[in-house]
Amino acid sequence: MAIEYLAWDVFVLEERLRRLERRVERRRLRDAQNPFELPREEFFSLFRLPQEATMNLVNLLRAELQCERIIGLSPEIKVLVAIRFYAQGCYQRSVGNQQQFNISQPSTSRCLHAVTEAINRRLLRRWVKFPMTAIDRQQAREKFATAPQPFAGAIGAIDCTFVHILAPSEHEEAFVNHHGRHSLNVQAIVDPDLKILNINPRYPGARNDAYIWSTSPIRRAMEFHYNRGERRTWLIGDAGYPLEPWLLTPLANFPEDTRQYQYTQQLFKARSRVLMYEPAFAAKIINACAVLHNMRVQLRLNDEDDEQLAPIAHPEENDVDPMDQDEEYRRGPRALAQRIQQQIMRERFPNFRDAEE
């Protein structure tokens, strides 16, 4: 009997050794197929970042991604798997099965979760920042004033976009948008280079743009600075947002020869996207993509076919009397915002007529 037990223990140990050898062999295979050795153009087409920027990203996240097991995936592979998923937007299995990785779907899923969480913890606040100080806002105004499509006084363009997700198990109906699809309604603010200044992926698709803006900390900050006397600082948005002294929106259905029409033509709308995850993790993926997007903007890696900001009006200095503004603001933010709009249109489009009320 003792011999039989010993033989069984030997068999178990041999089987464990064989499994370990197979894992080590797979690791060697992955190392032998090092994606960083791909030609620069091929690497960029797969991962949307050059090798140098990708390795910098790995080094920023290495402390959180380093695996203690010798057979574990390296931080380099984990990051490559994740950013390939972000770039491709495909299912995890096809990402993991690509010849550069040769890893299972569960391993792909673990990579995606680990890298996404690490980016949210370590990089989100560093790479996605709204201009909160007076100096930062002044720099943002200067950037808009000297942009190819300038808008003096603006510090950001705001819009919401649907990111489609899997139907959640709880409160499913709250995530159904007006197109009948499950989604998050993600609010983003960008500068003239399309750098993301703020991202808010916390709201379900049934919430409209105006509601998300009404609860936004950015709205409170803009109103706070306005009440402190900062009167020539705006965000620009589409018709889904309320007109406010710190948020300018388009005017619809005016003849082409009017200032109202010309003004409206200078504002823009953003576009929609897709994702297939439950809400909480989908929001983190969106944050991670925002970080990587800003890295690409800093490296001037925007795709040639990316949509550009539509032309935006260029108002001159606003000479509305501050005392008049205070009085009008007490009568309602919309009334004051309408007066600001009219001032902008008169200054920017002097050769056009005002539309009849």
Please tell me about this protein's structure:
By secondary structure, this protein is an alpha/beta fold. It folds into 2 domains: 2-122, no CATH class; 130-348, no CATH class. Helix content is 50%, strand content 10%. The chain has 14 helices and 6 strands. It has helices at 2-32, 40-47, 51-65, 75-88, 92-96, 105-122, 124-127, 134-145, 209-214, 217-227, 259-265, 279-298, 322-331, 333-348, and strands spanning 154-164, 183-190, 196-204, 234-236, 247-248, 273-274. Strands 1, 2, 3, 4, 5 and 6 form a 6-stranded mixed sheet that branches. A hairpin with a 5-residue loop joins strand 2 and strand 3. Helix 3 (51-65) crosses helix 4 (75-88) and helix 4 packs across helix 6. The longest helix has 31 residues, at 2-32. The termini are far apart. This is DDE Tnp4 domain-containing protein.
